[in-house]
Design goal:
By secondary structure, the protein is mainly beta. It is built from 8 helices and 33 strands.
Length: 508
Amino acid sequence: MFFATLIGLATLSANAEITDGTQNYLKYCAQCHGAQRLGAMGPALLPQNLSRLKKPDAVDVIANGRTATQMPGFSDQLSPEEINQLSDYIYTPSPIIPSWDMQAIKDSHEQHYQSEQLGDEPVFDADLQNLFIVVELGDHHATLLDGDKFEPIHRFKTRFAVHGGPKYTRDGRYVYFASRDGWISKFDIYNLKTVAEIRAGINTRNLAVSYDGRYVAVGNYLPHNLVILDAKNLSPVKIIPTQGDGGVTSRVSAVYTAPTRNSFIAALKDIPEVWEIPYGDIDEKLSEGKPNLVPRRIKLDDYLDDFFFNQTYSQVIGAARPTDSGGKKSKIKGGLVIDLDSGEKVATLELPGMPHLGSGITWRYQDKTVLASPNFSTGEISVIDMDTWETIKTIKTEGPGFFMRSHANSPYAWGDVFFGPNKDKMHVIDKKTLEIVKTLQPEPGKTSGHVEFTKDGRYALVSIWDIEGALVIYDAQTLEEIKRLPMSKPSGKYNVYNKTHYEEGTSH
């Protein structure tokens, strides 16, 4: 701790005034969270990494610690005023631009197991295609769930604040996690082991796994870049700075794989561009059998946040935020459609509220394919014809929603009411009539969200987003509850079959 304090003071003294909050941070926090707040044993403590932790909650954690972690409480050593000063400090932007270069990435690499140390047969008995990974944010764990018996197979610790949804390899054996503070973890489901980890950034948005299983792409908010990793052992392959014309750099809004194109698609939050990074484009002379990973920059007339693909992965349907990082007004009221082959905008979507197109789903309706998306800011679900891009219907809900899910074998689409006084509601929509047929209330007073189906669509799983939460299993035909599993703020749950087969009712 003494050396961390000296290093921190030397770094900070040339860049900022040394406050009481700074002094106490270096004395009590730097050993676990790093002298520059970039994270070490504990997570990074920068404003960008604390967006989901409100200041009063941070004060409580500093004073009383966090259960099921190594975070102690400091109420015996620090006064309430000092704790508030410390909280103010960690929410203050760093006076220097944090750096995380290739050497830092390599130095963070941890190979826990070599492939030859682990067997190729699962150490448990279950349908390997009907497994779920359930992310429990309450105490930073994940549960491997048997989707037939609805019984936990294994519960394991994850990095702090997993975000963006875990991604599977095509055979479902391995699953990759990304944490808010840049840690990427590879978990071997067959052997129930975390086999490798690496820190690819300081503040990470999400990750994608190439369809051929060779690469992992990591989209970062900080630094402004994409990091490509070798999927076998998570060793770094390439850093791709997300820089536009005139040297302007950008956070990565989202990155996904486009299987039919053998490429990653990334949207940039601060530059009006979408990038396509081919991972199947190999020039043997230049790359010795490896893809060049050179981005193709598609320039737009506005800024994209999250996005969704059409069924052939030839088009991107993107949502624009009301402002970019510089406070500029977006030109788009809801969303837009970009053709990836031509690089041209083919449609503008007039959506009533801020859409969450990253959770958009599709289904067949009256001999056409429709896209349905919830909206963050209004109690409405938009149903859009994917041929004409016209809104077929706006379904009124009891409040703004976050997630939608369905399944090809289910007659219903499920949409939550994630925000506002009716956050405990869940709407069930008939896909033929586009009408709400039932509104469920899994647990009064507690937020319900993020439905996922079993591989055959027979059951629907709903999360109760609370520290004392639960996973609620419904019969997807009768809409009756059949089982409830206590869990610590379960958020997303991801079925192996649905995710690896790109089932129409789930996000990709």
